[in-house]
Design brief:
Layout (H helix, E strand, L loop, with lengths): L17 E4 L15 H14 L3 E5 L5 H13 L12 E7 L2 H11 L5 E8 L2 H8 L3 H16 L5 E6 L6 H14 L3 E6 L6 H14 L2 H4 L3 E6 L6 H10 L4 E4 L13 H10 L1 H4 L10 H8 L1
Parallel strand pairs: 1-2, 1-8, 2-3, 3-4, 4-5, 5-6, 6-7, 7-8
């Protein structure tokens, strides 16, 4: 599918990689884990000390408890300036449904800067058996969700769920539509841990090439990788090498099934191998051990 982006020729590689932590949302889907509002705030405060850029605090529409926990994080961590550091962006997950998006906006409103992260499945198997929807119906619902989320905030992330099992031509169409509708971050999830690094990296590179508005509008391409084949970190790093500028991670790699991309592994790989990746992040790596122990 083509060679990696040449870091010497690509201006975007001069910018930092955004670290988006989903310990409090996807990480909570690890077997046996359930975090109440107090625990979420405690972990979020430590993530802020670590200087994580975005904290995905939960899925507000999932339950009243999750709504209250996201609200508590937004109120207590999303406004807390630490020295010269601004508070992290607080994000909430929402299905591509008005009620979910409204719940997210309401729960996040106290944060200085919040993000609505909306998603919809796009793979053929999900469309047929989960949603019973055509490609055109999925496309229109995605556009509507992004536009509606933009009515609450100018920071909107869109994820085509199960992207790595989605027909690539349709993935290009839906990414282009989300960008046109106003998404400021487009996340490419390897939802079932299916991808291999060389192929995944090539998809990220081709999305930049096939959707010119990504560069023109300054849209961030993000990746969210699961570890079912033990490749979440490898896939994420290959995506960064090919132009991704946000990586979604969880502390200790916790998460659904085999887990998410490990925050500490990807952060140290980027910091240690700047010579090859050409980018860095803003995390205070001295806080990694304390963060890992707290989540444990």
């Amino acid at each position: 599918m083509g060679s990696p982006v040449d870091v010497a020729d690509t201006e975007v590689f001069g910018s930092d990689v955004v670290i988006f932590d989903t310990t409090l949302r996807d990480g909570e889907q690890s077997p046996g884990i359930s975090l109440d509002a107090r625990e979420k705030v405690e972990i979020a405060e430590q993530l802020a000390r670590l200087n994580v850029d975005v904290i995905e605090a939960g899925f507000p529409a999932a339950s009243p408890g999750d709504f209250d926990a996201v609200k508590a994080v937004a109120e207590q961590v999303g406004n807390a300036t630490r020295g010269d550091r601004k508070p992290p962006v607080i994000a909430g997950l929402a299905r591509a449904m008005d009620s979910d998006i409204e719940a997210a906006a309401k729960s996040l409103s106290a944060a200085e800067h919040f993000r609505i992260h909306t998603f919809l499945s796009t793979s053929d198997i999900h469309r047929r058996y989960m949603l019973q929807a055509s490609e055109d119906e999925i496309l229109q619902q995605s556009i509507r969700a992004v536009e509606f989320a933009r009515s609450f905030t100018d920071d909107v992330e869109f994820s085509p769920q199960d992207a790595t099992r989605t027909d690539f031509e349709f993935l290009v169409d839906i990414v282009a539509a989300a960008v046109e509708a106003g998404a400021t971050t487009v996340n490419i999830p390897d939802t079932v841990g299916y991808a291999l690094p060389h192929d995944f990296g090539a998809w990220i590179k081709q999305l930049h090439e096939r959707v010119p508005d990504i560069e023109r509008k300054g849209v961030v391409v993000s990746v969210h990788c699961h570890n079912d084949l033990g490749l979440a970190v490898a896939n994420s790093l290959e995506a960064v090498r090919n132009g991704a500028r946000q990586v979604e991670v969880a502390v200790n790699g916790i998460g659904e099934r085999a887990g998410n991309c490990s925050l500490e592994e990807v952060v140290m790989a980027i910091r240690t191998r700047q010579d090859l990746l050409g980018v860095d992040h803003g995390l205070d790596t001295r806080e990694l051990m304390r963060t890992s122990r707290l989540v444990t």
